[in-house]
Predict the structure.
Amino acid sequence: MFAETCPQYLFLSYEDYEKPGFEGAKYVMSPPLRPKGNEERLWNGLSTDALQAVSTDHCSFCMKEQKEMGKGDFSKIPNGAPGIENRLMLLHEGGVNRGRITMNRFVELVSTRPAKIFGLYPRKGSVTVGADADLVLWDPKRKWTISAKTHRMKVDYNAYEGTEVTGVPDTVLLRGKVVVRDQKHVGSTTDGAFVRRQAGTARTPEGMGR
C-alpha cells in the first residue's frame, strides 16, 4: 500500500476557510483542510517514508464564474484548487530548506518513487544509460514569490499567494530536448509520448523496478 499527500495539506489549514468575504471558497477541496498543526504529522510521514509521494489534485477552477457559483449556496462551489505549477517549489522550501527532508529525499518523492509506483522505472525516474533524459535543472538559490500575477496556470488566483520560496526550476529537458528555458516554455504541444507501464513493479519498495 502506498500513500501520498499534497502541498495544500502541508502549507494551508482550516484557518484559510475563515478568511473574510468569499475568500474561503478558494480552499474548498477534498479532503478538506485540517486544523493547524496537522501539517507537521504529514511532514514527518514524508521524512519517514510513511508517505511515498507528493501530488497536487490540481483543479484549475477560477474564482470568477466558477467558484462564485456557490455564493448563495455553498454546495455549488466547485471542489478543488490549483497548484501543479508550485508543487516542486513548495516542497523544496518547506522540506529541504527547513531541514525536514534531504535533497535526495526530495528527488525520490517527486520523481523516483512515483516512477516506480506507476511501473515506469527505470525508463522514468532515473538518470541511467537507456533511460529517457527527462531532467530538471534546479536553481537552489533563486528566490521567487508565488503569485497569480506571474504563474502560468490558467486560473485567476493562487492558493499560495505571496509565499516566498528559495529554489526554482530553471531548465527542463524532455527526452533530451529542452522544453523549458529560464522558466519559459520553448517546447511544443506535440512533444509528449505515450509510455506503457510495466505491471507488477510496485509491490514493495524493495521490489520496485525489478
Observations:
- The chain is about 20% helix and 15% strand.
- Strands lie at 4-5, 53-54, 135-145, 164-174, 177-181, 184-185.
- The first helix runs from residue 7 to 11.
